[in-house]
Amino acid sequence: MSKAAERHKIDRSVDRSQPVEKLHPNERIKHESGYLRGSLVHSLAERITGAVLEDDHQLTKFHGTYQQDDRDLREERRRSKLEPAYSFMIRVRLPGGVCQTDQWLALDNLATTYANNTLRLTTRQTFQFHGVMKRDLEATMQGIHDNLLDTIAACGDVNRGVMATPIPEFSALHAQVF
Predict the structure, then answer these.
(1) Residue 16 pLDDT > 90, yes or no?
(2) Is the pLDDT of residue 1 over 60?
(3) Distance CA 102, CA 19 (A)
(4) Measuring CA to CA, which residue among 9, 99, 16, 25 is closest to residue 61?
């Protein structure tokens, strides 16, 4: 562990909550990660593979990113003894589902530059980039942050936004309840 990570490590000896050993394995990963740093810098710099290390794979979720592989190529690559065709999905966190015009244009540009030319609107009122290569993760995330948006807690073990009509009186469910 780096000296910087050591300085930021939480002292569990004075923590009154459950011992780390009794928590879900993901909580151990978080605890040992130095505030979600883990070995992501090393994993992202490693060019021999399109993947990140297993613990870092879990950490990327807490940063709003999922490592994926192209299932259409999976069997062919397995037969050829190649690793899966890895890429990443990045989910933007949009509190209240609000996105300004300049942010939308910036996200569209990032999708064209680093993703697969698409920006997907989700049922949870946010956007997803698909097909982002590991070598482009840092630039894509920086572009998101440069536009005053983020991805933290957009994936993983968190509650996400729920989409609802802005005028509930038009909802059939509302009519049934009231």
Answers:
(1) no
(2) no
(3) 46
(4) 25
Sign of the CA dihedral 8, 14, 20, 21? Answer: positive
| 16-20, 29-33, 40-44, 115-119: the lowest-pLDDT one | 16-20
Instruction: Walk across the sheet containing 127-132 and list its strands.
Output: 65-69, 86-91, 127-132, 120-121
Distance, in Å, from the CA atom of 116 to the CA atom of 158, rounded to the nearest integer, reads 26
> CA-CA distance, 133 to 129, in Å (whole number)?
11
Indicate the pLDDT class of residue 95, thresholds 50, 70 and 90: confident
Integer CA distances (angstroms), 32 to 14, 35, 107, in order:
16, 8, 32
pTM, two decimals, is 0.78
Domains (range + CATH), the chain: 17-157 (3.90.480.20)
Neighbours of 38 (CB within 10 A): 25
Output the six-digit token pair for 58.
Answer: 């879990």
